[in-house]
Please model this.
Amino acid sequence: MSLTYMDWIEKYNLNFQLHIKEKKNSDIFDQLNSDNVTGNISKYNDTIVDVLSVSKVNEKYYYKVSYKNKLIGWFSPNSHSVKYFRTKKQEVKLLQDEAIDNELNEVLKIDTDELRENWIKIFISDFYAIFNEKIYCGILLKDKLLGFVELSKVSFFVGYRTEFNFTGKSVNLYKDSKLEKTTVESFDHNDEPYMSLGGFEGFDGIRVIIDGQRYWVDQKSTDINIDYARIENLNDIVIDTLMHQLNDKIEKQNEFYSAHINKLKERNHELVQREKNIKQKLKKFKEIL
Model:
């Protein structure tokens, strides 16, 4: 029997957040498998809590949650609550403006006017949302959440920094990834190699560096051949989030140990300097005697 994405979350103790949207009362227990009820989750409706642990009991998943670093307890949420999974920052584009009209934006009562006005732009996404078993991307512009769009209706920027060559005699350089705004016509590349930075899934545009400037070029006019590996299902979400959390943990550990090593180096330098000062004082003292 294959594991569900919730089984993977339980197995690897994945941390995520839960936007509580309970339509029925659910008891909060002080411990897993306990009959001691400490409250009702309806008190936290419309609140985003941290999920510390997940455990499956009698085919039901129970979440150990906290709010503002204070432990709430264990409860079993329904399908109306929204799960948020933090991941790495990625550039994204919407495939169509119709994608803005969706169930999650309606449930969260998000004003999507600004997203609709700017839908053609390049956005940032750094977390996923799961609601009614559908995957959504949080869409941000200048760190402001403008709304959510289903995963299948966005294109992620895939970075691949590598040298490439143009295959045509002359090519156009563009300002945008959709290759609609020409910046330089009939660019003479002289068969020289250039550097690519990546491109958006489903678009022919490739971001490149030419003479220190960034442009977009048509992938079909280059020798670039890249396969896009994208998030497609709930299990992929768990794996992507797990890798992000592991990398983040490693970075924090590196920062911690680097800071301690630097302190030890400073302390060692102080001890060496102190030893030199003591030797100089002893030398002067001997000269006096």
